[in-house]
């Protein structure tokens, strides 16, 4: 009888322990629009595994690639309603919630990778991140490098006049309209997942993205020319909702922040390396890669950068330039 009671008590303790462990584990959804073979997704999986290990299973992040939980506008909205907990997103999509944080994504405003690295650790970026949090209740965990955007097309584009009337796909965000409008192109907002087919069917004439994206989305299969306009240095933000971070507690949230920031730089350095290697790779595939004098494009855009309607202040513009 006593042995049976002890055995039952031990079994009950095991069950309670298992129930307690299950109850304490918190599952978070990390959504993004990039393919599962992309650097962004693969490193997100590495980060999720490290976070699970370092929190001893208390935080279990599931990563959902390729717009499986929604397109970019939708996953941004999903943060606010709890449909997703963490996202990769471009500053251009966050602009609609807090305009100044998009400053780094405006055309020709960043001078290169070193300038960008200085910005991501600057007081300016910290202040803009806090402004976004105040406006949304979502926290910027880090900034990562997406790359220099270039125009692909089925003809050479060497000067602004070559883009006149060109129907070019752009992300569905206001700031992405600036460059094509400045060169008299015809910007066509379209979801990322729809671009390949639109190019293939001639719905649009061109698109613009960094070289690694052009490769992993296979846009070079349906566009004969890559024109190195370098008109925009693009970033991605890693953002989590306050609700998600509150659910896991401050100690585990600190681990998440640390891992996310480390992951952002791993991705950034890898994307930058890919950019250096890909021009030769595209030429090996038979794609025409055109070197471009960027100054005429910069001159066309400059009045827009300092004109009415930009979401940042001139003080913020000057501080970014001075970094």
Q: Would you write up a description of this structure?
A:
This protein is of the alpha/beta class. The chain has a single domain (26-322), classed as D-Maltodextrin-Binding Protein, domain 2, CATH 3.40.190.170. The protein is 48% helix and 20% strand. The chain is built from 13 helices and 9 strands. It has helices at 2-24, 39-54, 72-81, 91-94, 113-120, 123-136, 178-182, 195-200, 211-216, 242-248, 250-284, 295-305, 314-322; strands spanning 26-31, 59-64, 86-89, 138-153, 167-170, 186-189, 206-209, 225-241, 288-291. Strands 1, 2, 3, 4, 5, 6, 7, 8 and 9 form a 9-stranded mixed sheet that branches. α2 packs antiparallel against α11 (250-284). The radius of gyration is 23 Å and the shape is globular. Residues 1-23 have low confidence and may be disordered.
CATH superfamily grouping: Bacterial extracellular solute-binding protein, family 7
| Secondary structure: helix percent | 40-55%
Give the N-terminus to C-terminus distance in angstroms.
Answer: 77 Å
The CATH topology name reads D-Maltodextrin-Binding Protein, domain 2
Sheet bearing the most strands, described? 9 strands, mixed
DSSP strand content? 15-25%
Mean pLDDT: 92
- What form results from the Cα inertia axes? globular
Total helix count? 13
CATH class: Alpha Beta
Judging by the overall fold, what is the CATH architecture?
Answer: 3-Layer(aba) Sandwich
**Class of secondary structure makeup:** alpha/beta
How big is the Rg? 23 Å
Number of separate strands: 9
Low-confidence stretches: 1-23
Element-by-element helix/strand order: HEHEHEHHHEEHEHEHEHHEHH
- For the record, the count of structural domains works out to 1
GO cellular component, one term: outer membrane-bounded periplasmic space
Family: Belongs to the bacterial solute-binding protein 7 family.
Protein name: Tripartite ATP-independent transporter solute receptor, DctP family
Subcellular location: Cell envelope
């Amino acid at each position: 009888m006593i042995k049976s009671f002890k055995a039952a008590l031990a079994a009950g303790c095991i069950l309670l322990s298992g129930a307690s462990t299950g109850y304490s584990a918190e599952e978070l959804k990390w959504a993004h629009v990039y393919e599962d073979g992309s650097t962004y997704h693969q490193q997100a999986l590495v980060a999720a595994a490290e976070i699970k290990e370092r929190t001893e299973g208390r935080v279990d992040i599931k990563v959902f690639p390729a717009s499986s939980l929604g397109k970019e506008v939708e996953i941004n909205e999903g943060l606010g309603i709890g449909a997703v907990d963490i996202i990769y997103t471009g500053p251009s999509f966050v602009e609609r919630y807090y305009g100044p944080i998009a400053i780094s994504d405006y055309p020709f405003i960043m001078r290169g990778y070193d300038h960008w690295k200085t910005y991501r650790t600057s007081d300016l970026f910290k202040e803009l991140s806090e402004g976004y949090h105040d406006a949304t209740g979502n926290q910027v965990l880090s900034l990562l490098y997406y790359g220099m955007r270039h125009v692909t097309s089925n003809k050479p584009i060497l000067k602004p006049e070559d883009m006149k009337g060109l129907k070019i796909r752009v992300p569905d965000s206001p700031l992405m309209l600036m460059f094509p409008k400045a060169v008299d192109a015809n910007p066509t907002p379209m979801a990322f997942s729809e671009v390949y087919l639109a190019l293939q069917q001639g719905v649009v004439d061109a698109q613009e993205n960094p070289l690694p994206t052009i490769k992993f989305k296979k846009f070079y299969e349906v566009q004969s020319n890559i024109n190195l306009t370098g008109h925009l240095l693009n970033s991605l933000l890693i953002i989590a909702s306050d609700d998600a971070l509150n659910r896991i507690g401050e100690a585990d949230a600190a681990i998440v922040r640390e891992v996310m920031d480390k992951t952002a730089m791993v991705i950034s350095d890898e994307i930058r390396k890919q950019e250096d290697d890909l021009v030769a790779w595209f030429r090996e595939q038979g794609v025409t890669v055109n070197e471009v004098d960027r100054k005429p494009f910069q001159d066309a855009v400059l009045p827009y950068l300092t004109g009415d309607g930009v979401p940042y202040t001139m003080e913020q513009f000057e501080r970014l330039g001075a970094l």
